[in-house]
Predict the structure.
Amino acid sequence: MLPFNRFRTIDGMGVDTVLSPEMKSTGEVMGLDAEFGTAFAKSQAAAYGSLPTEGTVFVSLANRDKRSAVFPVKRLADLGFTVLATAGTAQVLRRNGVPCTVVGKYSDGPGNVVEAILAGEVDMVVNTPFGAPGNSGPRLDGYEIRTAAVTAGIPCITTVQGMAAAVQGVESLRRGDIGVRSLQDLHAALAASRAEALAASRAGALS
């Protein structure tokens, strides 16, 4: 857990959410549950705020990630989310049957996705970093998008694996599976489960 909204460079710019050697603070949160998606949703609520259960998701992916991200993005669309995407990502999504609306990158000028994020029109951002180091176009676009997400206080996912986990979390939230359980109850349930497994194993050995 990194409080990116508190970080600023010398010139007052926000700090990119992609982890780097410049990490200034670190901490941990933990979500516990029997189901992974529910546990992930809990961890996100503890870190930055709950995952959205409806609304608009913006997706901009590096070429290496586009094919593997189709299924989780399609699942969000099936759940009723409006999908915004940059031109290259939208092309791949549409080719695979995922409806989406093209929105401009930061470098495209007025009416771009950064303005939409800061205006509160986006509920979750998925942006996997790409581009050469320095101030290349794609790299700068990604920086502006992720920084805007932090400023707006919305979830910002930077890996395909994280996106898949987020989708599971959204599904858990929509089912109402999020609950509270004490560590004592959790350990009691684990102990009972182990005892049942051991008894079944012994019974099988005797038979």
User: Anything to note?
Assistant: The helical segments are 36-47, 66-78, 87-95, 113-118, 137-152, 160-175, 183-206. The mean pLDDT is 84. The chain is about 45% helix and 10% strand. The CA atoms of residues 60 and 89 lie 6 Å apart.
